[in-house]
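Researcher: Please generate the 3D structure of the following complex. Treat every line as part of one assembly.
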Amino acid sequence: MKRIITLSTRKLVDTVKHGGCGACQTSCQSACKTSCGVANQKCENNMNR
Amino acid sequence: MIHQYKLNGYNIILDTYSGSVHVVDELAYDIIGLYEHASSDKIVTTMKEKYRTNPEITEVEIRETLTDIQELINQGQLFTEDEYKDLSIDLRNRKTYVKALCFNVAHTCNLSCEYCFASQGKYNGDRAIMSFDVGKRAIDFLLENSGHHRNLDIDFFGGEPLMAWNVVKQIVSYARSKEQEYHKKFRFTFTTNGMLLNEEVTEFLNEEMDNVVLSLDGRKEVHDRLRRTVNGKGSYEHIVPKFQQFIKNRGEKEYYVRGTYTHDNVDFTNDIFHIADLGFDKLSMEPVICDPKEPYALTEADLPEIYNQYEILAKEMIARNERGGKFTFYHYMLDLSEGPCIQKRISGCGSGTEYLAVTPWGELFPCHQFVGDEQFSMGNIWDGITKPEIQAQFKGSNCYTKAECQNCWAKLYCSGGCPANSLHATGSINGTFEFSCDIFRKRVECSMMVKVAETIQAMEV
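Model: Done. Output below.
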């Protein structure tokens, strides 16, 4: 596309089927401790990659 | 729902429900802004008028751009509909298992930081160190209640957990001894102020801890203003060399140097850059959480400068990617291609359900920030969850249950925000702490811009 560049992203709707396995790190265990951010969590479910 | 914004010379479009991110030129940016509210012919007329002095923007160009936009819509990457409302209801009704425990091993501290949400480690209660018997039982509780979860997260927290050093070693050893039998993998995190770091501790933590969080607020005068010993002495000089040695021995394993910024250092990027210049490259800096009456509390009037600081940070990170001295910033570590699934984005941190905090006495709370608040005492490690109604409150709270989140483009990045922050700001875990939301949205915008810049840089190479 001439005027639009789309970044390589994961389509969220595609994660519904295999999502919610809980293999990933609990978000507050990493560094924040006083806020909630989940977007920087890495998925650890190979089925979902 | 989309969110479109301009930052650092980039025109960015975020499609909320697909997670797609687009970077576009001015014409496409304008058309996307009109797309949901005007017909194609009306958009063409409007664009022809706006760009009448630009010979490159012809009707053909405008119509081609409209076709490209329609193609993205057809591919489910733009103006996607919300398909997750039913899923959010399923998540509220799901059976949950505990997968993470915050071990409050020490309700005491060797620093007396003024802004400490845990009231200098005491959590508004008595000083205490967890016994090994309690720690051992807490491990058993987690093993017995973890269901299908294979990875179990344990965070040693306080207070200062190094004041419970011998117990920590015993708990780790006990947990490791159970991994094979239960087919589980323990992943440990340790949060420390560094005062008691020594060779033995460094070796053990670097061997056993998957992640270590080192508390440092930045410049000496900033750090020492609030992070003082019980005798009122600043701790910067004592801990920085220890942290530097610790990191030297840590290799590639994960760590964060984590700071807190307050009203007294709203120019907090200077602290982040100071920490980076000390040789640390995995950084986090959080806004202080405290009573708004405290003199160091952040205020609404600080917001414009806070926004500016997050932009400065993003631009400096892009610059350092090119010139060296690169570091990561926790809130800018968006993983667009392998990030969290939609269930994680809706259910959030798991406090009160998959994530609990255990006190030195074995009492269970929804997370470390609720410890000491008796109305949130959920049970204990011997009897389990004795107040399921508290658990139900947490399970039933996410970005789909909060009215204020419904039209927020960032809701799938924060899951509705921190329940503890909401409680303290509004009196309910279902409330919305708007000040925190404002900061969060700004961080997502900046982190997305960094990703865009990285993509464009890579394409140019």
